[in-house]
Amino acid sequence: MSKTIIVSNRLPVEFKISGNRIQSTPSVGGLATGLKSVHATGESLWIGWPGLTSEQIGDFDVALNRTASESRMANVFLKQAEVRDFYFGFSNKSLWPLFHYFLEYTLYDPKQWDAYYRVNQKYAECVLAHAEEGDRIWIHDYQLMLVPSMIREKRPDVSIGFFLHIPFPAFEIFRTCPWRDELLSGLLGADLIGFHTYDYVQHFLNSVKRIKGFSVKFNEVDANGRTVKVDSFPMGVDFNKFHFSAAKYEVTGQQFQSDLVNRLQDHLKQYPDSRLILSIDRLDYTKGIPNRIRAFQYFLERHPEYIGKVRLVMLAVPSREDVPQYRKLKRETDELVGRVNGKFATIDWTPIWYFYRSLPYEDLVALYTTSHIAMITPLRDGMNLVAKEYVATRIERDGVLILSEMAGAANELSQALLINPENMNQISETLDQALRMPLEEQRHRMEAMQKRLSRYTIEKWANDFVTSLEKTVRNTPNPAAC
Ligand code: ADP
Ligand code: F6P
């Protein structure tokens, strides 16, 4: 029976070796949460990096491979220098800032590009070692943009899909990359290339036309005689899982693993009129965390009537700490939170509760369900699944979502209160609007968003992509490698 081979930089779990035992924790991020549901239901093999360097793994490689294969996963082992130059290097110092329009953070180092090329080759070889006739290969995200053509060269017969989980930038931005040509050729080895939004599709096609000179008809590229289809597939969430977990939580009112959530519940019991504003993200400069804190400070200054009554619960999960900008952001966030709390706190009220950690799934759901408002303000975000997860957990259909128009999710969630993350005054007035919003209006908006998200789930997203890949391959049998 044929299978789907999912290929992503990281596996859905991160392995740790403690003494002589192998432990695993779930990987954080949209890609892992989303594809986990796909992997759980299908006939699939997931290829990726286990989160440890080869040096850390030492003699545990055989045991690690055994553990991975029990969950239908295969490891790509990376040496410390590869993690440094491929992952922290070209992926997160060049591509990540470039694709999120942070040109001032973008660094180009030929040594890191070489590592990116070599590591992409490693992933391609691992795929080739596992691919059997009839399998379909589904490659994910910016870390692996060369893998499609590397596989295509060796196996012209297999069907290859690629999905980008981050924005594809406008041509004027993308063209600044010294390896723009190679990146496009790498992607065009696929039969189908998917993006979250229509705009990203257009940006990509524009770059293909202007950089490669290939002709494009509607959403099909003629890549030297091979047809490559390009389309948008907005990623959804496992709506029922979030919805029913929230319903279960409401019924049982259980104790949670983290002290944070238990204390929040106690607080709400003690002060039933207080209002919680929630923000959750990886600590990433694209997520607009400093803007959000500054806007919250501005809001408290402009609307002192809310002092003592609202609280911003800000959860940030550690991310990419070896990249200097992430360490700088951590310092900046600590300082800003300290400044706001120092300025406004009273003996029994702290305006911002800030937590720098990851939370187990049940506690995350409890946080969503106890918060009256979710404030999600990225400066640029491919999709943003947190916004969708928040909506899915609102079983009473109350609550307000404040969402940046720069997040891919804003295209689908037009009933959210959409803001420009750079506009402090707008965010402040929108917070006021959210806090005063009548229940009827909250429900009206939530209902529309839930309707959309319960239809376009993560399962539907994966099915649509795979069906489209099969159709593309059937309708346009491609001759050979490009
Ligand atoms: P990204 O992929 O850029 O990290 P998304 O918003 O698309 O952003 O996805 C983030 C995912 O990570 C969500 O599924 C969310 O539930 C999860 N997540 C975010 N913060 C935490 C946290 N502190 N603890 C546990 N999971 C988290
Ligand atoms: O959404 C973009 C992304 O890079 C995903 O590939 C991943 O799920 C997430 O962000 C977390 O990033 P990292 O794997 O670098 O910790």
Automatic annotation (TrEMBL):
It comes from the Bacteria. One of its GO terms (molecular function) is alpha,alpha-trehalose-phosphate synthase (UDP-forming) activity. GO terms for biological process: trehalose biosynthetic process. One of its GO terms (cellular component) is cytosol. In the C-terminal section; belongs to the trehalose phosphatase family. This is Bifunctional alpha,alpha-trehalose-phosphate synthase (UDP-forming)/trehalose-phosphatase. It comes from Flavobacterium agri. The lineage of its organism: Bacteria, Pseudomonadati, Bacteroidota, Flavobacteriia, Flavobacteriales. The chain holds residues 1 to 482 of 736 of the full protein.
